[in-house]
Design goal:
This protein is mainly β. Helices cover 10% and strands 35% of the residues.
Length: 439
């Protein structure tokens, strides 16, 4: 009898009889999309996938994916697109509280979204797991009421300085739209699945970037008050934040490029000014990012409004009561600058680029990743999505900037050079970067 050829031998193998422990080991190293698909191969692979999920084993080094709404997959459906591998995965987006709700942040594989009353929720879009956060009325300056017409509204007591003193007149927000004005940035210190009270959710919010936080299980948001008690030098003006695992604390970034560290490990918040005001820095959008080497970067992003030659089509049933829509308007990034934060000398040092890393910017917790760990990612580039609040929240049907910025060439290119029919990035909710997780 002739020996079987290599192709015959492979074709004759019964892959369903692979040992479960071997399959689980393979799943530990697999991309989340591949791990999810493995459960549909056959009964034995489904059992291995179930065991992998039951053991709560981490999937290391997951590349970032773009989560976007995709009606092509069905009403209210969504998908993950991985620029590193080109893979696409449909996810259970229609599960409450996700479908068609705003995406306000992401971190550790979880999304931050808001419901019809503008209360925040944490959701893992791959597993469907959810975690509760305190309601909007648990912020120090928000009260709920109902008007004579039965509308659900919020009084927001900003108490901002005016020419005649402190203005105590509340700002009134519709409950279903309050999230558009209230939440500026949401940052997670850890995965909500970490257990205990490890996950701290830091909130930069109205008015003008105040700071509050909550741990899972808290009933109220804790307001970080300016003054000697906390050490916080400014009440508001914070535009971004990041959590440093190496330092075990948050860092806050202001519109004027000044920075504050915020330690929430003790019984009370402890803040410390770490970088002073940087002149002529107020205009660009700013991000805080920590590199794999542990350096902290400020990334400044300039944008401008432009008129598109191909206006978007508004839904036939849309009524523009406020006459706020402009189907031809787009927001485009025009420049990106990187600065290394020198905490010892209290200064910023401009750098030319990140030769071995790629940045991911948008509503997500900003990421700086080594490209050697994610073949397919382009080095010295920034993968971008829209996070300009006014544009995203008011012009919901306009095109989103989802693109790749070359730091070396100072130029923008499309994320994927294919037909928009193949990658229909829908405009609402705004697409967001996320590192998928099964935990």
């Amino acid at each position: 009898m002739e020996a079987a050829t290599g192709e015959d031998a492979v074709a004759g193998r019964d892959w369903s009889r692979l040992p479960e422990d071997l399959l689980v080991s393979v799943l530990r190293a697999a991309h989340v999309a591949d791990a999810v698909r493995s459960g549909a191969v056959c009964a034995s692979w489904h059992e291995a996938y179930a065991a992998f999920r039951r053991l709560r084993l981490p999937s290391p080094r997951q590349p970032p994916c773009l989560l976007y709404a995709c009606d092509a997959l069905g009403p209210g459906a969504a998908a993950l697109h991985c620029p590193s591998t080109g893979a696409n995965l449909r996810i259970p987006f229609p599960r409450p509280p996700l479908a068609r709700r705003p995406l306000l942040g992401s971190g550790h594989g979880w999304l931050v979204t808001a419901d019809e009353a503008s209360n925040l929720h944490l959701v893992n879009p791959v597993t469907g797991a959810q975690a509760a956060l305190p309601p909007i009325t648990a912020l120090h300056h928000v009260e709920s009421f109902t008007d004579e017409q039965g509308n659900h509204l919020y009084n927001v007591y900003e108490n901002l300085p005016s020419s005649t003193g402190i203005d105590t007149t509340p700002t009134v927000l519709d409950a279903h739209r309050a999230h558009e004005f209230m939440y500026h940035r949401v940052v997670l210190s850890a995965s909500p699945s970490a257990g205990g009270r490890a996950c701290v959710v830091l909130l930069l919010h109205m008015p003008a970037g105040e700071v509050s936080f909550a741990r899972l299980g808290d009933e109220r948001w804790t307001w970080v008050v300016r003054g000697d008690e906390t050490g916080l030098p400014w009440r508001y003006g914070y535009c971004d934040a990041m959590y440093s695992e190496a330092d075990g604390m948050f860092f806050l970034l202001s519109d004027d490029a000044s920075m504050v560290s915020l330690d929430l490990n003790g019984p009370s918040p402890v803040a410390r000014k770490v970088l002073g005001v940087v002149p002529k820095s107020a205009n660009p959008t700013k991000y805080l990012i920590q590199t794999p080497a542990g350096d902290i970067l400020q990334v400044w992003r300039w944008r401008k409004y432009v008129d598109s030659s191909t206006p978007v089509e508004l839904p036939p049933d849309y009524v523009d009561d406020e006459e706020s829509q402009n189907p031809s308007l787009e927001v485009n990034t025009t420049d990106l600058q990187l600065y290394k934060v020198d905490l010892h000398c209290n200064k910023l040092e401009m750098i030319e680029g990140l030769i071995d890393c790629a940045l991911f910017l948008g509503y997500n917790g900003s990421m700086c990743l080594p490209v050697k760990d994610f073949p397919g990612l382009k080095p010295n580039c920034a993968y971008m999505t829209d996070d300009f609040m006014e544009y995203v929240n008011v012009l919901k049907y306009n095109r989103r900037e989802i693109a790749l910025w070359s730091i070396a060439e100072q130029s923008m290119s499309s994320l994927v050079d294919v037909s928009p029919v193949m990658h229909p990035w829908l405009n609402w909710p705004p697409p967001i970067w996320i590192k998928p997780s099964l935990l």
